[in-house]
Write a structure and sequence with these properties.
The chain is of the alpha/beta class. The protein is 38% helix and 21% strand.
């Protein structure tokens, strides 16, 4: 079946369920992980992945799109084991690029440098960049590029397994009925899930929140 089309030949709508990966060892160490650092799920993360897989079991998932990082791929694999949906890696769905910060072990100084940019974005300073990393606009463009590739497939219901940083910053910018303020006071938890309808309308990506599980 083709994905839903309505009100014009250039409008494409798809049910996309966004899932943050299960607990990883980087969650325990506080390391930043974009590309250099790449660690697997913890035993707790595996338990969480199995649990979210069971929740998705009866949702008729057509396909799973995953960040290339181990913690996302492993979460996607558990979901695939239960739903029998195939997985495709999408580079655009990896965690936000913190640049030079990823090269350093966790410390108060490194965390403070991260929060300076993160808080700046949330206060409207979207052009602030991580040193040798990305700013808000490049992050959002990357997420939209990944979603555009998903939306041009023939699937009706898919899962996107990604990361807390990129999901928190980008998904509220795409949904008409959800604000980032909620996520700034209620972190998107490991295996937290947002059920959405996303569309391309007149070349723009937009959507609505159907429900969430966190």
């Amino acid at each position: 079946m083709k994905n839903e089309e309505c009100n014009g030949e250039n409008e494409i709508m798809m049910r996309i369920i966004f899932v943050r990966h299960g607990e990883s060892y980087v969650n325990l160490t506080g390391e930043f992980s974009y590309k250099i650092v790449d660690k697997s799920l913890t035993p707790q993360g595996i338990f969480q992945a199995k649990k979210i897989a069971e929740k998705l079991k009866d949702k008729q998932i057509d396909f799973i799109f995953s960040s290339p990082l181990k913690r996302a791929w492993e979460t996607a694999t558990w979901i695939s084991n239960t739903t029998h949906a195939q997985i495709e890696v999408v580079e655009s769905f990896r965690e936000l690029n913190v640049g030079d910060l990823e090269k350093h072990p966790p410390s108060e100084e490194i965390y403070s440098s991260f929060m300076e940019v993160w808080n700046g974005w949330n206060q409207g300073q979207k052009d602030l960049s991580f040193l040798d990393g990305e700013n808000y606009y490049t992050l959002l463009d990357r997420m939209k590029s990944g979603l555009r590739s998903v939306l041009t497939t023939s699937h009706q219901t898919v899962v996107v397994v990604s990361h807390g940083g990129i999901l928190t910053q980008c998904i509220p910018a795409i949904l008409d009925n959800f604000e980032i303020d909620y996520l700034l006071t209620n972190d998107w938890p490991n295996v937290g899930m947002m059920d959405t309808k996303i569309e391309i309308l007149d070349g723009q990506i937009q959507g609505i929140l159907i429900g969430k599980d966190f």
